[in-house]
Write a structure and sequence with these properties.
single chain, mainly alpha
């Protein structure tokens, strides 16, 4: 009797990407909270908009808005990209760098929305998604050479966002996507240039 090469007892679930899994879990919890509170939790914590600088929650919202989503489809569109790209980046750059890029993307996009778009309520992880997309194109970066994949992704991506911003009327913040992409690109360039 031959033994099956695949031994089921050796198969284990691996939490391979704790930062990405944690980010996903917080986004899911915030979406469920928003549904139960009829959007009140999004207004309070998980979106950013112009509010008093004396309110401590204003500063929480600078970071918390990347966890909030308006609907299941909004959540799924962002999280699918994050779950596909994020673990590869976390393996390459590590947990601390992933937390840093999420936090910097959240703060920069939140602050710009707060300053320049006082009547706009911003929420969602799309800035983080685009930071990851541009950062992922740096995985084959070599000293003194800019990858062609990065150039193509940057040109196509920025061109699409500019086109959408000019010609399409929707509730998507293309500026957030562009800023996220810039943060991801800057991080990838600095990380690969100075930490080799």
């Amino acid at each position: 009797m031959s033994k099956n090469k695949f031994n089921r007892s050796n198969s284990k679930i691996s939490f391979n990407s704790p930062v990405i899994l944690g980010f996903t879990a917080i986004c899911l919890i915030s979406l469920v909270l928003s549904m139960f509170t009829n959007g009140a939790s999004n207004n309070m914590i998980f979106s950013v908009y112009r509010s008093s600088l004396l309110n401590p929650l204003t500063y929480v919202r600078f970071f918390g808005h990347v966890f909030g989503h308006a609907s299941w489809s909004h959540f799924m569109n962002n999280i699918m990209y994050i779950l596909i790209i994020g673990p590869l980046l976390e393996e390459k750059y590590g947990k601390i760098d992933m937390i840093m890029i999420i936090a910097v993307t959240a703060f920069v996009t939140g602050l710009i929305n707060f300053i320049f778009f006082p009547g706009v309520q911003l929420l969602g992880a799309s800035g983080v998604v685009f930071a990851f997309i541009l950062l992922s194109s740096f995985t084959s970066f070599q000293d003194g050479k800019i990858p062609v994949t990065f150039i193509l992704v940057a040109v196509i991506y920025i061109g699409q966002q500019v086109y959408n911003g000019v010609f399409e009327k929707n509730n998507i913040s293309e500026l957030t996507h562009i800023i996220g992409g810039i943060v991801g690109s800057a991080f990838g360039f600095i990380e690969n240039k100075f930490k080799r």
